[in-house]
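Fold these two proteins, one after the other.
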Amino acid sequence: MSVKTITFENFKEEVLECDKTVLIDFWAGWCGPCRMLSPIVDQLASENQNIVVGKINIDEQEDLASKYGVMSIPTLLVFKNGEVVNKAVGVISKNAMMDLVK
């Protein structure tokens, strides 16, 4: 499954109402660690059909970043049944990311 671009307009449908586990990567184009994490997020998305993976650009979606208390990027949030169930800040390994969504 490919990574979805999440915006304020599609957040409710793609994240809150999704019946699968959703991993959201809060990022920005100017963020070096975000660029390091991005290929790992992309790989996780392509290898795991049972997980929905999305990215939220904090520069374009400030309201969503603020709503979920994103103070540093990259920040990964895991949603299940519309609720945040796990969180990681900074660059993490693929194995750590898999543990995050389990």
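Now the second one:
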Amino acid sequence: MEPLDFSNLAERRKKSIFSDILSASHMNACFTCGTCSGGCPLTGMESTRDEGLDARKVIRMALMGLDQEVIDSRFIWVCTGCQRCEIGCPMGVKLVKVWMAAKAARPRDKVPGVLHKGVDMCLKTGNNMGIPEEDYVTLLEELGEELAEESCPGFVTPVEKVGADYLHFQNSKEAYAEPDDMKWWWKIYYAAKADWTTSSQNWESVDWGIFTANMEASKEIARRKVENMKRLQAKTLILPDCGGASYGTRLNIENHFKHEFGPVV
């Protein structure tokens, strides 16, 4: 790798895809303390190890005008948007904004195919695995019966209950491949005597649009969550996922649907 030429750094920054978010992301405040990398669940994982990248390094690359290197990196695509890097940052750098800008700059035909498929399936069917509504409801009912026999006497999975305190959105990966994992949440609700429900449609927790920087898809996925909240008159939504659901939903409610609920807390 050739040494970087810093003589034209100011000019490179002006032309950078990150120039528009320089102020909003507070990138200039980064002093490479490494808190972001230390808290990132991707650091040292096999999915990024061969690139040798972590959150701190990618931020420095963005600041140095290495746009294409950031855009082409695998790191930004395996990031789930959990925001642990941002929460830990002592300077308030909005790192996920940087990853989103880089994702948006990649040509759509070069976006990882599995992510494109996830977005399309989620928009078409309401969940990324394409599970039909009837099959999903049957699964919920059968799992509820199992849980009642195993450890929670009288438990019945509350589907489409109007006026519950909590509306639970499910990760479709669990519904498709690891259904028993869904019971852990239900056990918590049962023990806490919580008033909760789940929807039979558009129940996918994960925001697949945010993973590809498809902001129109992200907005639509959030809108469906909002509509479910209104339709079922629920007070609080619960999004068990790896980060993207929380980030995308909060972002879209704040930007587009705040009038429905007030400020996001």
